[in-house]
Amino acid sequence: MTRKTYLSLILILGSLTALGPFSIDMYLPGFPAIAKDLNTTVAEVSLTLSSYFIGISFGQLLYGPLLDRFGRKKPLYIGMIVYVLSSLACAFSTSIDALILLRFIQAVGSCAAAVASRAMVRDLFPIEDNAKVFSLLMLVVGVSPMVAPTVGGYVTAGFGWPWVFVILGAMGAILLVVVYLGLPESSVPDRTLSLRPRPIILNFLSVAKIPVFYTYSLCGALSFAGLLAYVSGSPLLFMEIFSVSEKEYGWIFAFLSIGLIGASQVNSLLLNKFPSNQIIFVALIGQSVIAFVLMLGTWQGWLGLYETIGCIFIFLCCLGFNFPNSSALSMAPFSRNAGSASALMGALQMGCGALATVVLSLFSNHSSLPMTIVMISTSLLALLLMIVGRRHIQSFA
């Protein structure tokens, strides 16, 4: 593989991976405006995030077997078309219930990109390079939290929140063309795989019972839930509690994302000296400590705007070390059914994330304490699982 081909694949796969985060981050500054236009509350608008995460969780289980059965690109095309059409429909929503439903459909479309990109990393690159490739993908994905909320803030302020979804639809259409022209088919369709429910369930169970998979995929999923708790709670935290503007919120969100992306790139260097499982373990310890400080400081009222930003920045740095390594180790045991493994890993992530956002919506009390409680709870659970799960892992550690 030439360097040009390598970089081209990273860019396309990274863009596919970033489609979901863009769909999450870009409309966050518009929460107050959406609530006003649809005659509802910011807490109700946050349910559009929950429905999106539920849609991704469900959709990934749907696409996993399809990617193994029909190859990577055909199911990807279908998902991208669904994404484009539903994004445009979101722009014309006239009620919060309609927007919640359309966000679910939008998520089902977008998750094809996430599942296919992870499976294609396993297809196209040597297994020993997967952790580094995932770190590079996070560099591309990092454009989302750095750019999307800032752009979304300016678009919402200048043109209104519906235009955010028009832009997302246009991005999906452009990416569909790029995939068609520039991405090779990386897997031969496996006609022996059945699409009947029983064989699909048995296939997922065969993936889930492998200690390497369930340990690292659940560690990543729980950490991801902490991330989405922050994402879901951040509009309330910054725009209502600390009274920053839509544009200022976008810049704060962009700055904080530097921690996540910067750490993922430092991770590539650390992999030259340390194994992935050691990096995850240390990152989970740091993540748990800083989440505890954030929760305690919020509870006692010790933290102002800048102190809160500092704690969240460190928390996201720990996630930047966690995600690439947990993804690579989760996928390591699989080749033939990499699509199903990718789907199950993504479903676990989004399922935990959906649960976190629902909890925040239910226990919203106009403070950031519920957000910090979810962040510390998921961090400690991930650390405990890592300690217990490592005892059952015999290989791929």
UniProtKB/TrEMBL annotation:
SUPFAM superfamilies: MFS general substrate transporter (SSF103473). Its main location: membrane. Keywords: Cell membrane, Membrane, Transmembrane, Transmembrane helix, Transport. The keyword Membrane applies. The keyword Oxidoreductase does not apply. Residues 9-394 form the Major facilitator superfamily (MFS) profile domain. It comes from Rhodocytophaga aerolata. It is a multi-pass membrane protein. Belongs to the major facilitator superfamily. Bcr/CmlA family. It holds the Pfam family MFS_1. The lineage of its organism: Bacteria, Pseudomonadati, Bacteroidota, Cytophagia, Cytophagales. It is found in: Cell membrane. This is Multidrug effflux MFS transporter. InterPro entries: Efflux_drug-R_Bcr/CmlA, MFS, MFS_dom, MFS_trans_sf. The chain crosses the membrane at residues 45-64, 76-94, 100-121, 133-155, 161-183, 204-231, 251-272, 279-299, 305-323, 343-363, 369-388. PROSITE patterns: MFS.
